Amino acid sequence: MAIDLHKYANPKRFLAITAAIYPWSVWLTVILLLGGLYLSLFVAPPDYQQGDTVRIMFVHVPAAWMALMIYTLMAVSSAVGLIWKHPVADLTAKAAAPIGACFTFLALVTGSLWGQPMWGTFWVWDARLTSMLILLFLYLGYMAIWESFDDPTKAAKAAAILALVGVVNIPIIRFSVDWWNTLHQPASVATMDGPKIHSTILIPLLVMGLAYTAFFVMVLIIRVKAEILKRRLHVLQIAELRES
Amino acid sequence: MTRKKRRLYFVLAGMCVLGIAAALVLTSFEDSLVFFRSPSDLVEKPIEPGRNFRLGGLVEEGSVEKNGVITRFSVTDLNEVVPVTFKGLLPDLFREGQGVVTEGAFNEEGVFVATNVLAKHDENYMPPEVADALKKAGQWQPEDGG
Questions:
Q1: Torsion over CA of A141, A143, A146 and A149, rounded to 10 degrees?
Q2: Total domain count for chain A?
Q3: Which chain B residue shows the shortest CA-CA distance from A122?
Q4: Residue A185 counted as domain residue
């Protein structure tokens, strides 16, 4: 039992820290999301060319940011898990994957809904759209690997390797619009000459980005806690079986 | 400690090899990763009539001529110009000076016969009043949109 207690030392500290952050993340999510949606839907002006269709961007662009950010976090956690065998790192990566997959899906669907009226098509196989679809498959593949192993240690290792291999896709997505000509427009916010979006449209976009981040932190805390408890239960069940 | 270090170096080396492999693959497939060709690309690497490809650029100012369902216009990248003809419905964002991607092939006369036209949006977002003010002040750059 002494060894088991040692193993729990870190998850315990993790749970204590996240328990303190959690209420803040809930309030921030509620306030930022309500404020962001109000700014996006009522305060922001229509675009000079797109009209009100520009409002799809307030849902689409932060979702795409989150999709990339969560994958990067997942890859870093996986590397920490793989190299330093930190148990919470593997569980964080595992817990983040479905959230990232949802944001990727949201970005793809809202992009498609914007593309139909603006470009004249729901989908094209250009570098940006294709690499984003690959990201969704990477998330789904990562989740499938966790499900396909009975031994969580083996599953964590295999999934971590996939997450690290897939990380090459992240710069490809980010720079696809600069490296090749695509139908998707180039970056508007993070450019060398500063944002190419007027501040009345940029501010709601950034508020929505913060709202999504707060939402992600909130859901991640819940999911990691559930994973830690599940793992703990698993260990207790095995111990009970051994005793009987 | 040494095992952890070894794992760290192994992962770092793996990532480097992977990065190099990805870069090599992407550079060698560059031609097929490009979504469209610009009029200048066609001067560099001409494409024979009848072969389908995508042509992209800006709709040249003053080049749009509508005749029923047939639209004639020119696609330019501000260096070279290609005449295009298209029969069908154009997307909302199609206008002079705006980015466009057309699918089709050259005919024998060197005119690009498009079967599909997609509007390409640029990276600029602003309210209509700001766009008007920019135009009035003479700060408007046609290649930026509008």
A1: -50
A2: 1
A3: B118
A4: yes
